[in-house]
Structure formats: structure tokens, C-alpha cells
Amino acid sequence: MEQAGSLGARGSTGPAAPDIRTASVRVPAQARAADVERERGVASDESRSASGARGEHTHSEPPSPHPRVDCARPVETTRPVVQRASVRGQILDALRTALVAGELAPGEVYSAPVLGERFGVSATPVREAMQQLALEGAVEVVPNRGFRVVRRGTRELAELAEIRALLEVPVVLRLARTVPAARWAELRPLAEAAARAASAGCRATYAECDRAFHHAILALAGNDQLVQIADDLHRRAQWPLVGDPVPRGRADLMADAAEHLALLDALTAQDLPAVQSLVREHFADC
């Protein structure tokens, strides 16, 4: 294992921070070249005029706040390679995955330039991605050093679970009375994909499938603001706790995934007492 300094963690006197493997992100060569050119502020007049003549859109598209994850596909034990054109979006996805997997240790400070070297890009997209994580509350800015992963305890996790329950439980109970069985059956591939990820012990993939399953249920309510708030709370609930960078083991993931399948069975059967019991128990275990 490398020392913390080589990972971008500075000023730490404790044990070395977990490694962030370079295989987790593969930035296309063209994207890297474009990023370096943007970093230097150099652009070719010929390229600009040619792009204008063709009517091309030369600005990078902002990354989606909810990356598309095909949770119905077979689970892979290795992290999938992101193919999007946005370097910032790729780095943001990789950092979020590293948070869930425990590769970014709570309390450690990570340097954007050093992480950029490991990802094969300049510091700019890493810094931009870290700024987004700071807005989400995952990291905090440390002037002249980098970004520190926020320390979280069990109390914060319990508070997030309580808020999520207040939002989601009434919605699910209302949907249980109005949504036909055929619509619930359409969500089964998502629940089964989460079960496969849990069985494989792939925490990062399970986190994505778990969010996708809850997102799909809440989307049936037709309230976009509710879905957005619930997604944000769910993502925050998946960040690691202090002293426990990998808080959930394979058995915990499998139990959680089994609750998804049981809930779908109850919803399909329109068994309202079972739905109420399962959904409340699910959030109590979060």
C-alpha cells in the first residue's frame, strides 16, 4: 500500500489513506488532450473557425446529476469504465464511487493535482469535481491543501434515515393503494440487479442499484422535487462512517436487497399491512 502523501493526502500523521486505483477511471486520450488545452488557455484559431463553420457546439456538456446506471445488466466485479465525453463528469463519478467503496478515508485531505496525476488529467477537472462534492457535503475545502473527506458518525446516519423515512414511507403507502400490479412488476429487474450486486459483494455497484430502485419507486409519484431531495439524502446516507470506511458487508447488502424483493412482492399483491411493515423496517435498518 502506498503512503498517504502519494495519494494526495497531506498533513496527516495517522496511517496511510486507502489507495485510489488508477484503473477506476480511464479518461480517453482526446478528452485528456482537450483538458490540457483548456488548462493552458490555448486554443487554435483554425479549430475555432472550423468549428464555427460546421456549426458545432464546442462547450462541454454538464454532467447529469444522476448518472445513468443500467442496473438490469449483469454485475461486474470490476468498476465499469465511464465513456462520457465530460472529463469532469468521469472524475466526479469516480470520486463518488471511491467514497462509497471506502477508498477516500474520512478525515484525510486529498490534493487535486496529485489525484489528477493518478487519473491522468490536469488538476482542473478534479478540483471542479471536488467542489461539487463540497456542495453535496461529502468533502470540505482546506485552503492551500486540498479537500478533506467529511467525518460522519452514527448519529448523522440515523438522522438521515429518519428524514428519508418521513419522506418516502407515506409516498410508498399511497402508491401501494393506487399503482397497478403490472407497474410494480416492471421494477423487478432493478431489485434483482441489486440482489446480484449484493451477492457479488460489490458495494459501489450495489449503491448505484439501490438508489436506482428507490428512485424508480418514488418517480411513480410524479413529484420531481421529491425525487431529487430523496436522491440527495440517499447518496449522503451511503458515505462511509468515521472509523469504519467499509460500513456494510456482503451479508448486510444481501439482507437489504432481499427487503427490496419482499417489498415488491407485497406491493404487487397489494398487501397493505405487509407493505407498511416492510417499508418501515427497511428504513429502520438503514
Describe the structure.
The protein is mainly α. It folds into 2 domains: 146 residues, Arc Repressor Mutant, subunit A (Orthogonal Bundle), CATH 1.10.10.10; 131 residues, GntR ligand-binding domain-like (Four Helix Bundle (Hemerythrin (Met), subunit A)). 58% of the residues lie in helices and 3% in strands. It has a 3-stranded antiparallel beta sheet with strand order 1-3-2. Strand 2 and strand 3 form a beta hairpin. The radius of gyration is 21 Å and the shape is elongated. The relative contact order is 0.13.
| Largest sheet strand order | 1-3-2
CATH class of the largest domain: Mainly Alpha
How does the overall form come out from the CA principal axes? elongated
Give the count of structural domains.
2
Percent of residues in beta strands = under 5%
CATH architecture group name of the largest domain: Orthogonal Bundle
Class inferred from helices and paired strands: mainly alpha
* Helical residue percent band: 55-70%
Write the element-wise H/E pattern from the N-terminal end onward.
HHHEHHEEHHHHHHH
**How many β strands by DSSP?**
3
Largest sheet: 3 strands, antiparallel
GO molecular function, one term: DNA binding
Protein name: Transcriptional regulator, GntR family
InterPro entries: GntR_C, TF_FadR/GntR_C, Tscrpt_reg_HTH_GntR, WH-like_DNA-bd_sf, WH_DNA-bd_sf
Keywords: DNA-binding, Transcription, Transcription regulation
Brief write-up:
This protein is 58% helix and 3% strand. It is mainly alpha-helical.
